[in-house]
Write a structure and sequence with these properties.
Order of helices and strands of chain A: HHHEEHEHEHEHEH
CATH topology of the largest domain in chain A: Dna Topoisomerase Vi A Subunit, Chain: A, domain 2
Oligomer: homodimer
Distance between the termini of chain A: 67 Å
CATH architecture of the largest domain in chain A: 3-Layer(aba) Sandwich
Structural class of chain A: alpha/beta
Number of helices of chain A: 8
Largest interface: A-B, 56 and 56 residues
Strand order of the largest sheet of chain A: 4-3-5-6
Number of strands of chain A: 6
Strand content of chain A: 5-15%
Number of domains of chain A: 2
Radius of gyration of chain A: 22 Å
Largest sheet of chain A: 4 strands, parallel
């Protein structure tokens, strides 16, 4: 549009490339950043730069950290003998939010996908194996996505880890909490039936 | 959460303060900015800074510009005798998108709101009056919001501008294009009836 200043158009385009930000949201955000108090946009710029400079991946678990090892890996109160394996760094936060897991984490950095060229050596599986003996890991909990690639990755890991004498489990599949049967698709309902548990 | 690096938490908080960005979106955006290619976040930072430094308000119409006067005010093909009055700089873009207006704009910078302390002298009304004679304005089209404050502002402007011998009109109120009657509320439908127009 002729009446849009070029620098504003460039900002809208940059915002529009962010995940989940459509053209209208990008426009609204850009106008806010340009027209609201100067401090707002300065603060955002500094926050982006600081996070970008400081956040790195923990060299032990592969999760988000600002130090070589993350807080969770360095926390002596966390049980090192139980390791929860997740796909992405953000999954660590999701499991933590549930508030019931007191062990350590290991981030794979992806899932097996032969069609996309993701082979076992592209994931942090060797790093996981290297943790088993020094940390005396008794159980590996697989908390991977329940899609085809996630399931394939879980099965591959189970086969590979079992000879190491470690217990391998996966998260329960079943009904989401607080909903009725009508909100579960057939596959979920089928798995919930297969995984039924005794009531008292 | 203990496991969130402080700089990442700060970035999420800064993003969450933007309009229309909730906690979950802020988290997704922050992780994208931190974990995707470095170029993405650098580009966004530069775009914010450039727009912030370069975008200003046109000293004539009050719209968005990178120069003292905006492209629209300097465009000799635009009719200076018809001025469309809008509330906010972004409204200029919305009217331009309709593609039917070939006159000039004037941004009020707000609407009258005695309860919030917005009086006539807080809006760019004097600046509008000062344009009438040198630009030989024949018609002022009021394109203000149709809420209570917008309507009050329109009526105030009409009273104040009429003695200057200028025609004052407002946008038509009626049915939105491309919808049925069921999508118009009672007030809109009432105004559409009052403003009915002859068909051929």
């Amino acid at each position: 549009m002729a009446s849009l200043p070029p620098s504003l158009a460039a900002l809208i385009a940059a915002l529009n490339r962010l995940p989940g930000i459509g053209p209208r949201s990008a426009e609204r955000l850009a106008l806010h950043l340009v027209l609201s108090e100067r401090g707002n946009s300065d603060q955002l710029v500094l926050a982006i730069q600081a996070a970008r400079d400081q956040v790195r991946l923990c060299e032990c678990c592969g999760g988000l950290a600002e130090t070589p090892r993350c807080d969770l890996c360095d926390d002596p109160r966390r049980d090192p003998e139980i390791v929860c394996v997740v796909e992405r760094p953000v999954d660590v936060l999701l499991v933590e939010r549930a508030g019931v897991f007191r062990g350590r984490f290991h981030v794979l950095g992806g899932k097996l996908s032969p069609l996309s060229g993701v082979e076992p050596e592209d994931l942090r599986i060797r790093e996981l194996e290297n943790r088993l003996t020094p940390e005396r890991v008794r159980e590996v909990i697989l908390a991977l996505p329940t899609d085809v690639e996630g399931d394939a990755t879980s099965h591959y890991l189970a086969q590979r880890l079992k000879p190491r004498g470690v217990r391998v489990t996966r998260l329960a599949h079943g009904l989401p909490a607080g909903t009725g049967l009508e909100y579960a698709d057939e596959l979920t309902l089928g798995r919930a039936l297969e995984g039924r548990a005794p009531l008292a």
